């Protein structure tokens, strides 16, 4: 079967959406396929489920191929690769999945798309973990053997996307569980050198994702030049491609271009998210055109950038479940996905990219609508005075979005105390927030002119109205009246979107006085948080060493001390302290 040349451009998009229709879990982990859903099914139920999956996959692939993507990414190698070390029951399940996925692969290839499978390093079953133990050499040999057999069994696979920085949360109850085993740049380097010959032998690409979640000594691989250089030292394989997020953190605004794109000549692709997990997941317009246009222009100066990898469905733990290129309600994500490709593949600017968008009934109104949506996100969802500042804690860049996390909105006294010294003009922030609400009202009129869902803009107005009120609480003196207005807005929000109507944000208020005074907050920011990427002496002693010890102490009492959302989240204690 024909495979793409190792030097060919990559315009990839994730294809996990077809696996989620009918998945009735309230909050979904969008980082990978819902394997637990299939594990709980009988073989007959799995086969019936895959009939619908194949139909949706054909629709999805036909749509993304038509607009110009040339490959898809899909989970995952461990569930499809047989090995003698697995339990018999696991082998039986893998055989079942292989039977169904071969038909999925045929559909993808029939639409002219190349296929890349993801995998975590390392994904284990109980028996496999006992066989490998903590031996780095055994783990590396196992990976090489597993990949070699996998490429022989699936000649249609063009390559594998390696993820090293995530481990499954405590909620995962499945045969396979991923585990963090590569703890420093040297270990990653040895792993890559051990498996790259397998990729070269089979003519497949090894796409290595450089982002991690605060994991050990490679937690800063996403942004720190020295860590990246150590990780790829001495590697010249033509099969290797680095896959990097565009900024120093997750998919947020207010991030400058990741400097690691300019570090070496290894081929690179830039990861972009069009279903913005921190910006509504496509429930309302969150246009990325202006942000990505600037990134595309800056990346023209970076050496050997050969394409993009777009996340149109992947990312986050949320109940929001609009499926791009399957569900007609996912129009905002689909517009983002179309424009993103035009910006990076064809070198167009936003206006020209939008002019190619099919089915536009009112181009001027659409352009204004999307421009306003981007302004509202930047000015109200984010707090500009805070977002423009750069903060680093231990090995991670602190995200520039505060008070909004996936499908949660927080208004709390602790945030009020923290923001006081960080925002110079609170009244200006309040005025800017209310001005953004006026823009949303204009967007509702434009949506009607474009024949786009006005109900989504109304939903945005209700949601962002609470955020605007939250600014009054943050930046004005303590006042019972503003608390009452917030409680009233929350009640109206829940009444407008009751359970069963559409998924909405969870709004959480905490007005209890936060015990830290300004002095303690200042000490925290002076000694544990820094404003530049480089490590200070205090960071190395306290941030990287002492807090790592504290992590192991806290871990023993983790069920009591760590909130449920943090235990499930990649942003929990593991992400911060390891």
Instruction: Tell me which CATH architecture of the largest domain applies here.
Output: Alpha-Beta Barrel
Which spans have pLDDT < 50 for at least 5 consecutive residues? Answer: 558-578
CATH fold field value of the largest domain: TIM Barrel
CATH H-level homologous superfamily name of the largest domain: Glycosidases
Structure class:
alpha/beta
The best one-word shape is globular
Name of the top-level CATH class of the largest domain: Alpha Beta
Give the tally of β-strands. Answer: 18
- The helix fraction, in percent, is 40-55%
Main sheet: strands, sense, barrel? 8 strands, parallel, barrel
Strand order of the largest sheet: 1-3-4-6-8-9-10-11
Strand content: 5-15%
Count up the helices: 21
Kindly summarize this structure in a few lines.
The chain has 578 residues and is an alpha/beta fold. Helix content is 47%, strand content 13%.
If you had to describe this structure to a student in words, what would you say it looks like?
With 578 residues, the protein is an alpha/beta fold. 47% of the residues lie in helices and 13% in strands. It is built from 21 helices and 18 strands. The strands form five sheets. It has an eight-stranded parallel barrel with strand order 1-3-4-6-8-9-10-11, surrounded by four helices. The C terminus is likely disordered.
Features:
single chain; 578 residues; alpha/beta; TIM Barrel; eight-stranded parallel beta barrel; three-stranded antiparallel sheet; globular; disordered C terminus
